[in-house]
Amino acid sequence: MNKNLTKKLAPGHATCAGCGIPAIVRTVLGATDEPVIVSNATGCLEVTTTIYPNTSWKVPYIHSAFGNAAATAAGIDAAQKALLKNKTLRQAQGKKPAKIVAFGGDGGTYDIGLQALSGALERGHDFLYVCYDNEGYMNTGCQRSGATPYGANTETQPAGTQSFGKDKQRKDLMEIVKAHGIKYLAQANVAYLDDLKRKAKKALETPGPSFLLVLQPCTSLWRFPTSDYVKVGKLATETNFWPLYEIEDGKYTINYTPSNKKPIEEFLKTQGRFKHLFTSRNKNIILQIQQQIDENWEKLQKKVSGI
Amino acid sequence: MERGGIIKHNKDNAPKTGDWKFMKPEVDASKCIGCGTCVNPCPEAVIELIERADGNKKKLAEIDQEYCKGCGVCAAVCPVKAISMRK
Fold it and tell me: What torsion, rounded to 10 degrees, do the Cα atoms A234, A236, A239, A243 define?
């Protein structure tokens, strides 16, 4: 195994073959040499890395409940500040407090954990929240979440003769988090690990709360071959489905503009969850998705230029 | 279980996830250019760049089959197709 990469998360965990979540965790935690404490929401990452009585984590790790990864991180931050007031402890541990990183899936962030996240951001705790977004409750079999895109086939909103899958647009979490006025937040993609590392570094250096939203193509329930998470992730960005951008002090920057933008079909056709859209009955759904993506991209560009 | 409900990482207890695979990645040493593209995306972090024994300056990707689940991500991202999946 790679000794450098497995300093904080060891192999032997039970994520599906071809899952990108461990790559996200290793990249984010690898962006700092300082000690880290991890708080984790319930989700794929939690159930696969902490199978009792074993653990893959080599750093201090807390899992409490589904919805409160951010609240747990806030508690760690408060406890750390209180402990560091004590002189002997300060000398024993060194003066610097550990970095706190919370990981949550889209279910634990967009839906169930939103309240805890909002509270922790508002109170200004010093932590980084990383949401790995696989666009559904993939751990329990692909139920629809607030992050599931329009037209996707899910277990709770299946495609069939009466339905084309999810009939609502996904939640714009970046804007919700931005509304808390935090200093640094960014949208990243597991297929662009160098970009993710740079953003994680920036986020960890930011005092106060920071947020990363990382796309995580799910091989099992987006339904594509195990070898393809990088390819699918790259297509998401090259079709503008998942633009890479960051917001520093309210200022938007787009990190990657595809030189020739691909049509959204290129992304959709790689995945089984959109298979039903390629029938004559659902043709207009693809047009609607394309239209929405173009609109979002235009909006983002306007935000960059400050109009 | 240790006191206080704290479980420490123990490498000896790690499940050998190499048993999962039905396709095995093989590195073609003559094709590998040692660029490291496959190292970071590997979900299990089992790929390491090692020095070659024959004095060639290019590094070589080595895969730890003990933990490799055989997903094939490394073969898919390799820019020179030096990794192939074999049964």
Answer: -100
Residue B70 contacts A, CB cutoff 8 Å = yes
Within a 13 Å sphere around the CA of A49, how many CA atoms are in the beta-carbon half? 30
- Which of the four CATH numbers 3.40.980.10, 3.40.50.2300, 3.30.70.20, 3.30.70.980 does domain B15-86 have? 3.30.70.20
A198 in contact with chain B, both atoms CB, cutoff 8 A: no
Chain A residues whose beta carbon lies within 8 Å of the beta carbon of residue B16: 12
Instruction: Tell me the CA end-to-end span of chain B in Å, nearest whole number.
Output: 40
> Roughly what angle, to the nearest 10 degrees, separates helices A21-29 and A193-205?
40
Q: What is the complex's ipTM, to 2 decimals? A: 0.92
**Range of the structural domain that residue A234 is part of:** 5-305
Q: What is the pLDDT along chain A (307 residues), one digit of tens a residue?
A: 888 999 999 999 999 999 999 999 999 999 999 999 999 999 999 999 998 888 999 999 999 899 999 999 999 999 888 888 877 666 666 667 899 999 999 999 999 999 999 999 999 999 999 999 999 999 999 999 999 999 999 999 999 999 999 999 999 999 999 999 999 999 999 999 999 999 999 999 999 999 999 999 999 999 999 999 999 999 999 999 999 999 999 999 999 999 999 999 999 999 999 999 999 999 899 999 999 999 999 999 999 998 6
pTM of the model: 0.94
Tell if the CB–CB gap between B47 and A2 is shorter than 8 Å. Answer: yes
User: Do the chains contact at B17 and A13, CB–CB below 8 Å?
Assistant: yes
Residue A294, domain CATH: 3.40.50.970
Å between A295 CA and nearest CA of chain B: 31
Picking from B41, B67, B71, the nearest residue to A11 by CB comes out as B67
Give the gap in angstroms from C-alpha B29 to the nearest C-alpha of chain A.
Answer: 18
Which of A99, A248, A255, A118 has the alpha carbon at shortest distance from A183?
A248
